[in-house]
Amino acid sequence: MIDFIAQTAIQKEGSEENELTKSFVTAKRLLKQSKLESAFKLLSTVEREALELENFTLDGEVYSTLLALLNPTEPTNA
User: Fold this and answer.
1) Residues of the chain predicted below pLDDT 50
2) pTM attached to this predicted model
């Protein structure tokens, strides 16, 4: 019984994280299409839910994406 409950919880958490990752990818696509309002709303949701799930990697990706938008890097001369 304990194994079943644990397995169910793990599957649910995994599927929630997969959905969150899909939302993040969708937000990045919206940014590329210049649909900023929708992209920012989705990024905000992903950030909040990533923190709730303690998915700090995805949360960091959201922050990196937002920082890149605020301060785009200039091309370097190599």
Assistant:
1) 76, 78
2) 0.74
